[in-house]
Design brief:
The chain is built from 18 helices and 34 strands. The protein has 697 residues and is α+β, with helices and mostly antiparallel strands.
Length: 697
Amino acid sequence: MTVKFILGFHCHQPVGNFDFVFKETHMKSYSPLIRTLSALNVKFCLHASGILLEWWEKNDPELIKIISEGVEKGSTEIIGGGYYEPILASIPCKDRLRQLEMLNASLKRLFGRYPSGAWITERIWQPDIIKDLKEAGLNYAFLDDFQFFQAGVSPEEIDNIFRTEYCGQYLDIFPIHERLRYKIPFAKPDESLNEILYLNGRYSKLSVMFDDGEKMGGWPDTYEWVYGKDGNKGWLDNFVQEANSNTNYSEIKFELPSDILKDDSGKRAERVPVYLPISSYREMGEWTLSVNQRRIYEELKVQYPSATLSGGIWHNFLTRYPEANLHHKRMMHLSRKINCSSENRRKHLDNALNELMKSQANDAYWHGVFGGIYLPHLRRGIHTALLSSYIMYKEAVKERIEKEYYDFDTDGEDEAFFSNDFWCVIYKPSAGSFIALDYIEKGLTHSLGDLFCLHNEYDILKLKENGNKKTEDGQISGDSENGGNGSGNIPETIHKEVKYPSDLCDEDLIMRKDILPAFEILFNGENIYFKDESIKECADRGTIELKAVNFLKENLSLNITAGRTLEFFIARKAETDGKLDVIFRFAFPGGDGPAVNIALGADIKGINNHIEKEIETGTDNLVYLSDSFWGAKIILKERTETKCPEKYDLIFKPLTTVSLSEKGYERIFQGVELKYSFNLTHGKDFSSIISICIERI
């Protein structure tokens, strides 16, 4: 009996990732993996995202040639998908098709043929994507076996090719075997081959392993294990040699999916009908759960180890992370505007659409075990793409000023959106805050409000629970979530011992549910609801004015003017005592590196310093925040117009989060907070003007 085995690897790097990460992962994983498999004449599937193909074409054109030769001789099958690796189920249908067709065109140009199969990003399945896959000429895809188990397919039936449909359009699906994903390469070759060969004590008809290419050398401690050291063969060579020469595994035959779907006689292979729920692989469903739900889920896993327990769906991340939700809704909103302009005004917006598609890259929308949305450079990548797309759109439709009300965070309240040649702002009336603050001057485009705070995370809960178990070398004991057995030199997929910052304190673990605003006003520590807001274009073209009044006991008024400078006029009638805090928060492309500093008068300090200073009112008080990596500085000027108070406190601090990475728990710099703190006295009016200006350096 022949056991058909599909071996596939998915290779991708996020939009916004550092070039040195591309290079290191390429040298440790992509290059040796593809070159070794090609040299051994192994049949395998390869999916590479468009952004990675661009990097290969520029930095390793020989690898492109090797892949092309494999495609030509029938040993390599190229798999399609979304060009920038979007979650297909999360973007508009027109954008889905563009993403799919863009990668199709790139694969045709590089390798001489169009793909017939699709890689579904993160295996996020939603039935309606079938229509767009089929329209792009993609007839089959890969999903995890767990998704079939959720649909009621038994483990004994999983070694089949399945067929599903949506509105009468069919798609074939190959089930990826989760146990095999964890064996390759984290078990000895013979153990992995036995997993391919046997299914529930019998020969398997079909075994599929399609997983991240990065684990083949790019993950911690895997490079020497996979490719060898000091002249000794590594796991990959031994695996292929064992499969080809050991008679115990002679039934295993490496196959390509297109060959399986049509045998030599031209007959089509049998399919088993199935209808799958909205789903992803098992681990993704776990990560989407809230902390309380995850705790219950983990308890149920222990109680019912053989049960198919479903977690949440990927879209839950948009409810767990308001920052992801806001970016997603801004992307969707801009997509509608661009597509509408393309159709109704017949504007050529190809460049704007390409930048929009970059902003749909999935990596900075969610958080699993490592990184993701917690990494500022990944968020900056998709935010910059979104802003670039928006600028191109404005130029095409010749709109210098835009102002509208729209519910950008799906909470039932319309936010005020306004933009000119320099600023793009989303103002939330119920909190008197900016949930988005972007600078859009050409050459200096940057999301100043791209901030992130620590949200309620299951791994942080485990950190708190295990905090008293730390060892002398700064480690805590953690649960192993890997498929290796920890013996010999076999690497683990995730470390059992997790390091954390030696100076970790309770403040690092403070969690917040909502967005960290770029601007907000607090009175006695609470947000203020501003009513009767209005937005109008001033006589000075290119300037926008927003007025808001608070009719509660604080009786505050807020007037914001956006020209080249962003100006805030805050006034309060003399009625009550209280503490008024005006807070600004900024993110920097230069992070907390040496390129970024703060200057108060002649005092220049690094951005990681905590500063508290008493300031006298009645004069212009200046703060300079410089980022030479960005090429600009933020200048804040404050002047208190009234005699009360005579002094106020200026408090500056860095904003950080703690999250799990491949190296353990790491503190990540997210931005800075600058707080003007005024103690207001009953019977005395108060007013202050604070302006923000961006200058090149």
